[in-house]
Amino acid sequence: METIEKLRILSGSARYDASCASSGSTRSGGKGSLGNASSGGICHSWSDDGRCISLLKVLLSNDCRYDCAYCVNRSSNRIPRASFTVEELVDLTVKFYRRNYIEGLFLSSAVMHGPDETMGRMVSVVRKLRREERFFGYIHMKVIPGCSDELLREAGLYADRLSVNIELPSQASLNLLAPQKDKQSILKPMAFLGNAIGESARERRKNRKAPRFSPAGQSTQMIIGASPESDYQILRLSEGLYRKMSLKRVYYSAYVPVNEDRRLPALRTPPLLREHRLYQADWLLRLYGFTAEEILSEEYPQLDEQLDPKAAWALRHPEYFPVDVNRAEYAALLRIPGVGVTSARRIVSARRFAPLTPEGLKKVGVVMKRARYFITCSGRPVERLIDRPALVRGRLLLADGATVSPSSQQRQLSLPGL
Amino acid sequence: MNIYLYDGSTEGLFSAIDHVLRHEPDPSAVVLGRREPGLFEEGVVLTTDRERADVLVRRFSSAFPRNAREVMYALFSEKEEIATVLLHYIHMVARHGGQVGAHLTHPVVNEVHLLACKVARELNRMKGLLRFAMLEDGSYLAKMEPDYNIIQPLSSFFTRRLGAQEWFIYDVGRGLVSRWDGSTLQYGALESFHAPALAPEEQEVRRCWKTFFSHIAIPERKNERLQKSCMPMKYWKYLVEKE
Prior knowledge:
The complex is a heterodimer. Chain A is α/β, with parallel strands linked by helices. Chain A contains 16 helices and 13 strands. Chain A has 2 domains: 3-289, Alpha-Beta Barrel (TIM Barrel), CATH 3.20.20.70; 309-401, no CATH class. Chain B folds into 2 domains: 3-121, no CATH class; 130-242, no CATH class.
């Protein structure tokens, strides 16, 4: 089979992996080496689905021995199978990189004969890139659960980021949809990576020449909407992963029905809006100091599809507002709808020179159509409506152009059999 | 109100700013403009002193590196009337220190900051969207038509990234070209351009990239609006995948 034909098959099989981040790592070689990693990450293109392309995202092989219900590559599917040779993939990566098509390689694979054999071949690709080609671009590698610690250790020396897919948000769903995978075999390599990453970071603080281990940390991904877990369960799981496993990112991938299977829900379209709201809530967990319990609860286990989770929280907590932008601490500013991490930082530094007015807030990047209901500027309110949350909610929806219609299309329809 | 005129070059601008800062009691009331030959001139014409311009740039950059970056980026925007704003900005920074760069509600700081942001954004985009093609002799050529004059910071980025290969970056709109031969970076202007022959492998690599590009998108998630908002169509002209 020609390389281009393999590329067609193996990029088509890899596209359901959500992550394409190329950030969090700086790496550069000496004279004669190829490439560098830039800490902010760089996007090189955007595909027709609007997702960024930063890395050459491919599977090494789609010839899988597992039969997971949701996966396009499951062994019972009759689809063309292909595998790259190590040389082919290294050559392709280098040729793309030299033309600035990509920031690096995202390498995943179906499980061929067994975890060790598959992971071993993936490691040979990145070893060849780093050692022989002297490639210093970004490398993201998937971990095949069940592979040996030695392979994990070697992978961590070459990759900028490693990730183990948690696949589904609960053991029950894994049992049903991916009977050959189980939670323990997924959490074990995650814990191993967490330790190794932390240890390497500590070593490097003592000695700058200590070897790096997956310097951009680890991430994971789960499929949303193929199983019945609530948003609350999902956010609690993510929160636990961030706290206990010190993950850099959890990715949510709206379930795209690729297989006919009685165990799977019938969806008309992927639950994109739900995925979007989960990402917003995830941002609140990681960067805004929120806890999962603040965003959702047992009584209200689903995110509001019409309103972003921060605005929804603010409307449930009128007692917290108004916040005075000229006096409040950074953490309190972050809780205002319409104020982000950047604008909160800018408020803190700009107000040292002069108190901020509604006009000035606009200049530093605050989204006033949302923030106006929740703030005062040196005691002066912009809108006196905070004690009427229902009215504010209506106004917020109106300000966002009230895109209610597409949301109802994207809503999940049914979850048969679960 | 005092009006000064300079020759329009970057050195001329900094030399003029240096002059105003040293001789004017209140630089914030001075207007600095580009001298338009042949027009009726109102204002004091300043001659360019390269040495003084150099000293100002060096001192300002080492004392206030972050502010100097904003000034350089704002300058790359090539916006008309930028001279006066930059004069007032440099004056403010020299007087109040680098922190004044965070005084974003001040009109001068705000204007410099916004311009610098726009330029930085395009520079960042172009770091990803620039496409090199391999030529017959093994060197690489990238063409672009950016809104702002970003060839300098962009080229220096690629000296680090693709330092082991020879390349050219060609700003088609401005007729500017940069050349990296593996050890030094040179800039020049281009009067006319003849498309050089491509390396034999080039078409095959492009076919591979297009194949990858079309198969990495999930058809059920098709969203052209999002694609166009992240990657505006003005950049598509030189993108292999959008040919």
